[in-house]
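Standup notes
- HV: blocked on the assembly model, inputs below
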Amino acid sequence: MIIVLKAIATKEDIQSVVDEVRQCGYEPHVITGVARTVVAAVGDETTQQTLETLASLPVVENVLPIQKRYKLVSREAQAETTLVHAGRHCFGARDFHVIAGPCSVENLEQMLSVAESAKAAGATLLRGGAYKPRTSPYDFQGLGEEGLAILHEVKQRTGLPIVTEVVSESDLIPMLKIVDVFQIGARNMMNYSLLAALARTGKPVLLKRGLSATIEEWFLAAEYLAKQGNSQVILCERGIRTFECATRNTFDISAIAIAKQECNLPVIADPSHAAGRIDIISALSRAAIAAGADGLMIEVHPHPEKAASDGPQSLNPEQFSLLMQDILPVLSACGRRLSKPDNGTVKTDATNP
Amino acid sequence: MIIVLKAIATKEDIQSVVDEVRQCGYEPHVITGVARTVVAAVGDETTQQTLETLASLPVVENVLPIQKRYKLVSREAQAETTLVHAGRHCFGARDFHVIAGPCSVENLEQMLSVAESAKAAGATLLRGGAYKPRTSPYDFQGLGEEGLAILHEVKQRTGLPIVTEVVSESDLIPMLKIVDVFQIGARNMMNYSLLAALARTGKPVLLKRGLSATIEEWFLAAEYLAKQGNSQVILCERGIRTFECATRNTFDISAIAIAKQECNLPVIADPSHAAGRIDIISALSRAAIAAGADGLMIEVHPHPEKAASDGPQSLNPEQFSLLMQDILPVLSACGRRLSKPDNGTVKTDATNP
Amino acid sequence: MIIVLKAIATKEDIQSVVDEVRQCGYEPHVITGVARTVVAAVGDETTQQTLETLASLPVVENVLPIQKRYKLVSREAQAETTLVHAGRHCFGARDFHVIAGPCSVENLEQMLSVAESAKAAGATLLRGGAYKPRTSPYDFQGLGEEGLAILHEVKQRTGLPIVTEVVSESDLIPMLKIVDVFQIGARNMMNYSLLAALARTGKPVLLKRGLSATIEEWFLAAEYLAKQGNSQVILCERGIRTFECATRNTFDISAIAIAKQECNLPVIADPSHAAGRIDIISALSRAAIAAGADGLMIEVHPHPEKAASDGPQSLNPEQFSLLMQDILPVLSACGRRLSKPDNGTVKTDATNP
Amino acid sequence: MIIVLKAIATKEDIQSVVDEVRQCGYEPHVITGVARTVVAAVGDETTQQTLETLASLPVVENVLPIQKRYKLVSREAQAETTLVHAGRHCFGARDFHVIAGPCSVENLEQMLSVAESAKAAGATLLRGGAYKPRTSPYDFQGLGEEGLAILHEVKQRTGLPIVTEVVSESDLIPMLKIVDVFQIGARNMMNYSLLAALARTGKPVLLKRGLSATIEEWFLAAEYLAKQGNSQVILCERGIRTFECATRNTFDISAIAIAKQECNLPVIADPSHAAGRIDIISALSRAAIAAGADGLMIEVHPHPEKAASDGPQSLNPEQFSLLMQDILPVLSACGRRLSKPDNGTVKTDATNP
């Protein structure tokens, strides 16, 4: 930690800061600058008490942390990418994965139709929400357990592993039997109680970046999972909230590049939620691949104009099929290979990926 | 809903949109403009299926909702301010309330010391977190049930009602006996499962605005509580995330003014989290009062430089006492009166406010 | 400057950074931390070459500046507030000033009508744009020199000093004779060429904060003027651009508090542009006063619904008169006094404030 | 325009809005909804007086514009991409262009060295600032005319056309003889006086998106140029200001995709300013190509750690050469071709591109 003192700080002030630093278990080094005195505090910021509280002292102008706050998920801690297993698929290696499906599970027919067309087009995992955290209480809130049953049925018939959002610890038990990858949505990235409960399941987690989470906070949410014993985490960039309204969110392509560089977890992109409109999903998908993403999550609905949620950003099966063709040349330019779908049905033991 | 068609839309396209609108239960009105055709769809947007999905049609440029999405918490639904009862205090009337206390409960001595000095300075409710949602898993996570016991003890001794944050449905049972006002923190404003669980308790809720929640989303989170039967909600503006780093968050003073105008719930301000620094807390507090706030929530710690969390933004008891003097002339200019502290101890039946 | 090295840095790497630091004229201090090595570079950051370029070295993780970048306008350089003279008025002392008028000068009748009613209500300076920087080239761009002539006429008749925006160096000559305070609009805060030209005039400048300017960048824009010899600068907070759309901009009340504390220039607020809607202008005005503002700038138009620009945020004369009454008790609670209008006409020598 | 009335609006209120709409030259259509009455106003929003001022009426809740505000630069006005000629190069067709060079022109040796290595690596235009708009008045402000002379010399020797920033109308005359493409920097995107002066030169303009400009505002700045007779405009996305600090700006890759779709001008990306760090420039460059960009602008400096400005984000020649190799497979996957450098020297008649 670097503690910057105000220009007005006297010798006594400096000494009192030095004492405080030492008392907190750090070794203080005083550096007398031209305009400011600085106290460098040597110690392990991640295990010792933070010195940021010293900012409350009247003579302290600023406290600057030096270390990164995440450890287990960093490339410094582990240089190679963690392989995350979802069904028979593996994220983080050469294979590139496309997770497709509607925002919400509406009925069996809808899900089967999407699953089959998405699989035919090259998707290898199925998404669909049974529990929907909606901004308005008057919006469709998901089918709940009925939705889980539909997902189970579709998984049996198509063999596609299931990625679905969990919004409450109390839904975990019924979900465990069906779900291959638990999705933490943007609204719950900082719901650390839910992350703790998920960590205990040992199941893979798709961790969406929060609406206004910094990249570091996103990594720290993953660190919560890793610290509690679950490193099977896939990061998902889905756009952040900014002043720009031409898109639903601002797709932060740099976050993908930085995550690939500084974090040892696989990273995928969700251009559907970023764009909020279908006309640029192909461009964003291609860009995500070029920036290093390990996969995509795409909203597909048989009839977007009638979707219970997120219709404006959902592709219909034909558009999705075109998208899958659009990305092929970029995948190959990046040395990636589209993962192959399983052809058989999945074994029922979903709890053991 | 207003559906704006693209310039390229043909007569057939327009007709197909009209049909779709009618099929969704709305009455379509076609308006042929100079550059665009517009279809106005008459119907109740809050109960009928949204037409926003029509944006997925290739000929639709834009879909503009007309109605506000919140109802129960609006001034249109109820012109007078909802009175929210916390212990013997009432938010939303002429009395102005100051909730004071540390970020985290650390030990009995700390809490007693803060409670007594804060009460002496004019605070009428005590804050302090037993469960702390911290960005890093390596930061202090709160004392949990031990913290609740401390809060209980301090409440018995000082008579100050307790405001404390809840982060998980599974903590509700032990909290119910002790807590007077449940705080929903910024990170959990969109944790709708937790809101549902809180609604069932019937207890007052202090609802902090999310880090990047729009004002409308904040009102909609309150609407979740109201729709599920709990209108005892106090809104709390605590700053939003923007590009500006001179403050921890950007205190959105307009949100207070708008909330007072459009929403029927009491509104308080948390300048401590907004500022993230102590030197402007007095100015922000005075501004909040001038903008119409019904109360303040202020972080106070006996030794901010040793606080387990949020030290840089915590006032010490002396600074807090000065703040209370600073706000008096503005309160009186605004026709407000500082609420009087109870002098006796609180009855143990905290579940019945 | 603090140069943080990556964990991988070898002894040789550290030495090469140390050499570089010394070569740039700073004195290097190496601090070996637990996880990182840090090089503290002692020297005057504001006069010597910046070391931020060292961030381009592969072993450098981060370079942290220590000093503030503004000097002349800081309270450290000058503790008392600079008094800025506009006509016979003085900003920065006890007197509080209200600048009122329409967004654009449209015609003599409009300006006279606004000026007279605003003066009657207590405004002491008149605003009105002759040159309008509009987002769309199809919007009204201002009357130009014709507008200046109208302003001149109204100033003669009412004695109100004129505050008006300058958008180009080439308009300065005709403006000099008429204008009492040059306004730099939000879009031009970083137009440093224009600032340089204004500095040469020696005339007072009202410096609006840029749409997305940090507080430090705003102070640095003022520093450009001060460094070039013109310290007659009034800062104006007018809201920043964020994700929130309920207001046109997010009024950053903290910026006023921070400016009053760290900068020696007077600070006023422009709640009209911040709000973009009339219903919260009174609340924001009161809040600005409570936070320490030295004045207000308010858009007033005789017929807002017919205004050539900014109609939605313009008060009509009656609303403005109510606003002036609303602010009185807060002014008095803050120990401020509304400045008194001149009753006579202004002498024509406007160039000598 | 759609005028949404408040729920409280009476028949008389509605009639008065209808009258107002008609008086402004629009044809009003009243639509009586379930919760609100809406008045649709038919007329040309881009030529007639805006109705947004009606928002100032007490019974009006909201005014929603329907038309887009830009015309000449839209794909609706012209489906094919405008070809912009810079030296012998053409932006907007199949050829992909890389503009390389340092932030600031420092001396002849530096510029020659960069120009030659960049050209050897495949760059076809040279950038370098003689006039630098710097946030702090204490930072290097550019060499001015001496810098122009250096650019001229380097252009003569290498044949690379020159792209350089203009910050003031008064510098145009000396620049005209040397410059092939005038760059409008992010800080000046809304300096409409400067845009007007540039339009009169007829020279190509590289228009950087403002720090917090919306995509629509960026197109409108281009529309200012086009409306005044200069459609030789290249748009340049360089990142926007958001809460995320891991990058200097947030590279808005969606803006590229949307610009390619809705605007008829060529679009390039400046990943250097977006990233503010060198380690992700390659990833962002590849992403920009995949999203449809027509070119790149890359900061290259012979010794980034000694650069007078923007060192942390400048590549050295070797890194630049690697970048050029990195982008090749993506270019080819996107059907693009790197433009070929001229081998001869450029004719001195730079004013006639």
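- HV (later): unblocked. The two ends of chain A are 43 Å apart (CA to CA). The first strand of chain A starts at residue 2 and ends at 5.
- Next: hand off to the docking folks.
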